[in-house]
Structure formats: C-alpha cells, structure tokens
Specification:
Layout: H1 3-21, H2 27-33, H3 38-49, E1 56-64, E2 75-82, E3 87-93, H4 101-114, E4 128-134, E5 145-148, E6 151-152, E7 157-158, E8 163-169, H5 177-185, H6 196-207, H7 209-246, H8 250-256, H9 264-268
Parallel strand pairs: 3-4, 4-8
Antiparallel strand pairs: 1-2, 2-3, 5-8, 6-7
Helix pairs in contact: 1-7, 6-7, 7-8
Length: about 270
C-alpha cells in the first residue's frame, strides 16, 4: 500500500471517529441533517418561532445569496419560506464570536437584497427571521430565547419593519419543547433524542452504510477544499513576495511561478 493510500485510510478512520461525535449543532453535520428535509426544518422552526401552524413550502441548505456581487459572500446554513412568503435563515454557531450582532445585521440585510427585485416597492419585502442557535448563553441573561426587534426610542413602540432576529441558547435544557429541542441539538446519540424526526435522520447518517458514505464524502470534500484554499493563499503570498523583491508586475510574477494563464485572474483580483 502506497503512502497516499495509507493517508487516505487514516483520513477515513478519523472521519468515522468524528462522525460518531457529531451533533446537530455542528454545522458540517447540521447541513446534511437538514438537506432535503423540509419536515425537520418545519418542526424546528415551529418550536423556535412559537407558531404551531407554520407551514414551509420550500427549504434548502447551504443557500448562496447570489446578489452580493462585489461584497462578502454569504451561504445560509438552512433557508426556508413558508406559505405566507415569510423567509427564515437558521444558523448554528458553536463559537460565540461567530454570532456577533454585526453578523446578524449582515444576514438580515443580505436576505432583504436577495428578495426585492428592481421595480418592486419596499413594502413588498418579506417578513424575515434570522435565527442563531448558539452553544453558549452568549448574552448571559439566563434566557432560552432572545428575540431582537427594533423599537422607536422614547415612545416604546415597535418599528414594524418585519425583520426579526432571534438567538436561541442551546445550553438551555428546560423541560419544555424548546428545552427538549436544544437537548437534541447537543446530542450525539440518536437513541437519546426526544424528536424522532431528528433521531431518524441522525441514525441514518451515523449507522446506515449509505448515510455514513454521504457524511464521509462531505468531510473529504471539506478537507480537499481546505487544501485548495491553503495552496491558493501560499501562491498568492509568493506572488506578492516576488513583486516586492524583484519589482515585477503581477503578470511577470505569476509567469515566473508558472501559474497557468487560465488561473491568473483569480490571483490578480487579490493583488
């Protein structure tokens, strides 16, 4: 067996170990768990929003917002739309820094841009819900749910822009539907989950050969993507060093590194 084959085998064994410990709160697992799983997304949103009759008409994971040309890109963990046209962005964040208020603001603004076409009136903007499920109680208030809505200062009336931001504290483990849901988000064993919807898909991805294969392919793709990004950053730094030390133009530096002409534009835009 070659060294490359041995490394691939070691990577696969590590992936299987990681898979056993995955929880719905881990974004790698969460995106596959919710993929093509409208009933599960609907179940989760009904509990968080508090609307038992909420009915999703479409749902997708890793939705790229395509109108952010020239701006920082955004890929939503889970995006949904209900039968009233209301939009939902469901995100999971283990690190407190990943759920900063500025990020919620950007998600909300980007979703607005995505949903208003040229010629439409502002009143046609959909009601939106930006939801962050965080592993820790990042606001330290001891609450299960932190709803954030704009208000008019001085008169204490709602601003009524129909833009809602909610932070859900996954460390809340109360004996109510939300507490049980958060328990499941932190649970790696499907047999210990309250929700059969979540347990069934979790069990499939962790024990069924086809489900395990799906998850291992996702982790392999992520590993390859990291390698490509590392290679890109290394080459970009080499280009900059050559330009500075030899007073080369970007084109001369890239030619010196034998970077194919077809690949040069992706480096040129960062120089």
């Amino acid at each position: 067996m070659t060294e490359k084959e041995l490394q691939k085998q070691r990577d696969h064994e590590e992936d299987l170990q990681r898979l056993r410990g995955f929880r719905p709160l881990d974004d790698t697992f969460m995106r596959v768990l919710f993929r093509d799983n409208l009933p599960l997304a609907e179940y989760v949103l009904r509990i968080i929003i508090g609307k038992e009759d909420l009915k999703l008409t479409r749902e997708e994971t890793q939705k790229d917002l395509v109108r952010l040309v020239g701006a920082r890109g955004l890929c939503l963990d889970v995006h949904g739309e209900d039968d009233q046209g209301q939009q939902y962005d469901l995100e999971v964040q283990r690190a407190d820094t990943g759920a900063r208020p500025e990020r919620a603001r950007y998600h909300a603004g980007a979703l607005d841009v995505e949903n208003l076409n040229a010629g439409q009136e502002f009143e046609e903007l959909p009601t939106t819900y930006i939801i962050f499920i965080t592993e820790n109680d990042i606001f330290k208030g001891g609450q299960a749910l932190y709803p954030i809505d704009r208000a008019i200062g001085g008169i204490e009336q709602p601003f009524k822009d129909r833009q809602h931001i909610l932070y859900v504290n996954a460390s809340y483990q109360g004996d109510d539907p939300l507490g049980q849901l958060m328990h499941d988000f932190l649970c790696s064993d499907p047999d210990d989950m309250y929700s059969e919807l979540m347990a069934e898909k979790t069990r499939y991805l962790k024990t069924d050969p086809k489900g395990v294969e799906t998850m291992c392919k996702v982790m392999e793709d992520m590993r390859n993507d990291v390698e490509k990004r590392t290679e890109y950053r290394t080459k970009l730094e080499s280009i900059k060093n050559i330009m500075e030390s030899l007073d080369f133009t970007p084109k001369q530096a890239m030619d010196a590194l034998k970077i194919p002409v077809s690949e040069q534009p992706k480096y040129q835009e960062r120089l």
